[in-house]
Amino acid sequence: MFKLKFLWQFLGLFSPCFVSVLPTPDVTSICGPETNQTLAQRIQSSQWKASDWLLDQQTEDWGWDFLSTGSAILSLQLANETWKNDLESMEAQLTIKQLNIEVLREISHRHSFKEMSVGKLGYYAMALHASCHNASNFHGHNIMKHLHHRVDDFDTNQTKNYFPYSLALLALCSSGSEVPHSAIATLEEVQGDDGCFPFGVGLFHH
Ligand SMILES: *[C@@H]1O[C@H](CO)[C@@H](O)[C@H](O)[C@H]1NC(C)=O
Ligand SMILES: *[C@@H]1O[C@H](CO)[C@@H](O)[C@H](O)[C@H]1NC(C)=O
Ligand SMILES: *[C@@H]1O[C@H](CO)[C@@H](O)[C@H](O)[C@H]1NC(C)=O
Ligand SMILES: *[C@@H]1O[C@H](CO)[C@@H](O)[C@H](O)[C@H]1NC(C)=O
Question: By residue range, what is the domain housing residue 190?
Fold first, then answer.
C-alpha cells in the first residue's frame, strides 16, 4: 500500500501539461507524514541548490554531457514544476529543443539506439512527456512502443540491477502506457523480505 501511495505521489509530479501555478507544496509528499517543516525546508533548499548546480553544468549547446539531457530536464521539472511552463524563458525553450536534437540524433544511429540502456530510454521518455511531447509520436517515432519491447525483452537472468528496469516501468506508467503485469511480477520476485531490492552495479548493460 505504501509503495503504491508513494508511486502515485511521485507520478503526481508528472502532470505538468495541466499545471501552471505551483500550489503550496504538501510537505507530507516528501518523506511521508512524519516530515516536519524543518526537514521540508532543508529538502527544499537542497533541491534548489541541486537545480542551480545542474543548470551550471549545462553545456554551450544547451544540453548536458554523457547523453544526460533527458535526466537533467526531468530533474529540473521535478524540482520546479513551473520550469518548463516559463514560455518567456529562452533558456527553457533552447534546452527542450536540445532534448529533441539529442533524442533524434540517437534514433538516427539505429545501432546505438537499440543498444541504449533501458533506463536511459526511460529517462528520455519521461523527459519528453514532462515537456509535453507525445513520446508515442515523436517526429514519427514511437518511443513508447520501443520501450515496451525493451521491457518485454529484458533478460532478468542477466542482471542484478533493477534500477534501469524500474525507470523504464515508471516511464510507461507516468505516460499512461500499460505496464505489463509480468513486469510488476518480475519486480515483486526480486524484492527482499525487508522490502528492499538488490543492487548490482554494471554487471551487464541494459
Ligand atoms: C524534524 O525532523 C528532523 C529530521 O527527521 C529532526 O532532526 C528534528 O528534530 C525534527 N524537528 C521537530 C521539531 O520535530
Ligand atoms: C521555477 O521556475 C520558474 C520558471 O523558470 C522560475 O521563475 C522560478 O524562479 C523557479 N523557482 C525556483 C524556486 O527556482
Ligand atoms: C500520441 O500519439 C499517438 C500515436 O500517433 C496517438 O494515438 C495519441 O492519441 C497521441 N496522444 C496524444 C495525447 O495526443
Ligand atoms: C532464466 O533462468 C530461468 C531459471 O534458471 C530459466 O528457466 C529461463 O529460461 C531463463 N530465461 C532466459 C531468458 O534465459
Answer: 7-29+36-200
